[in-house]
Amino acid sequence: MRSVLASLVVPCAIGVATGACVAGASHLVEDLALAELAKLPDAWPALPSLFGLLLTLLAVRWVTRVARPATAEVYILAYHDPHGRIPLRQLPGRVLAAAATVASGGSQGLESPSALLGASFGQIAGGRLRSVVGAYHARSWMIAGASAGIAAVFSSPGVGMMYGIEVPFRRDVDAPRLVPAAVAAAASYATRAALVGPSTLVTLRMEPTLDVLLLVGCLLTAVGCGIGARLFALATEELRRLASRMSAVVRAAVGGVLLATLAFTAHELSGAWLTFGPGYVAARWLEGGEHAIGLLALTMLVRTAGTLTCVWGGGGGGVFTSLAVTGVFVGEIVAQALGRSESNFLPLLGSAIFLGAGYRIPLAGMLLVAESSGSLVLTMIGVVGVAIGQVLMGPRSVSDAQRERRTPEELFDEAAQRGTGAASARSDAVGAGRGSR
């Protein structure tokens, strides 16, 4: 009964609560606020971008009252600290800061606060029921909650399931906590879908013709996304270093001007506000028809520049979906260059590879292809493509808080908490030590 409560019942409840909250926030910020903003005439939709980062800064200073660590790093840092706790008092301010960035037209999404919200629900449940299920299971609920947040905001139970147990590491995964993460992710996705409907980035229209040209396209997409993700990580690293030397007010003001300029530029090029939000506007524009390769490349750079501007200027959102959108652009460029746009598989593949490489979550990327394609052959292509992207990414990541892998001592402690016995714990620890050498 204790195992059922710890692995099924409570994670399901956390998933439902997280999915409902994320559904409401996504609907208000992305479906309503951004939609109404885009309806304004002429260049007026770009105007709020001037003040979005300043409003975000106000939320950070007067509500959150702390600027570091970034919202995207809070869950990862809490995961790695055995006694770490998510500061619940900061949660309203962090959600408000992300909403201010996204609703004003910033090129970020609600992924980071969504994961943090779910992890907070898990932490609260763990605090209330710790004496019933033990410390190990109570902490598992925080991890399951993070998975639930991503599953709801990204509309992917597979990606969400792997996020909570994979994103804390660059080359490791917390496999023993897979079950509660999977249950929470599935419940969260189902709740969001029932309340406001899913919002997928790319939906496969039809399976592509399997031939040599398609395989060439998959290889080019993998190489482009792997190198692109590495360049993105290098850019974010450098921009954060530059940001530490400048006033937050100056960065927010200058960043607002840049965001407004980029939004207007993208609209002049494409007729759509491609820089707005996490990237669903850009993905819908790509689905609307064929575009010249030069235009695709230029709009991709403008869109990515908007995301990097938010990183430098202190945006409160995350870059999770933005990474995937850049991969969609890369896949579409390759598809147009090879004349293989009868199917949108290459954009789908690009989204999985770029996201998997950027955040060092290859299993999540592989599951995204499997989940979206429903084809064994395409899934295997996706597995190889994501693997190539990981190799080209090298040791880099867009997250500074990730660790390389768990240490033997951490594995020993976890095994002891699970009650598997000292012999099994020592075996796990020794195996991990040999692998790291």
Explain how this protein is built.
It is a single chain. The chain is 73% helix and 0% strand. The relative contact order is 0.14. The longest helix has 37 residues. It has 18 helices and no strands. The radius of gyration is 21 Å and the shape is globular. It is mainly α. The two termini are 40 Å apart.
Keywords:
mainly alpha, disordered C terminus
- What is the 3D form? globular
Secondary-structure element series: HHHHHHHHHHHHHHHHHH
Question: What profile does the largest beta sheet have?
Answer: none
Strand content: under 5%
Helix content: over 70%
How far apart lie the N and C ends? Answer: 40 Å
Mean pLDDT metric:
92
Could you tell me the number of beta strands? 0
Radius of gyration: 21 Å
Structural class: mainly alpha
Low-confidence stretches: 421-437
Helix run count: 18
In short:
With about 425 residues, the protein is mainly α. The protein contains 18 helices and no strands. It is globular, with a radius of gyration of 21 Å.
Q: Secondary-structure map with pairings?
A:
Layout: H1 2-38, H2 49-64, H3 71-80, H4 91-103, H5 111-133, H6 135-153, H7 157-166, H8 178-195, H9 212-243, H10 248-270, H11 280-287, H12 293-313, H13 320-338, H14 345-358, H15 362-373, H16 376-393, H17 408-418, H18 422-436
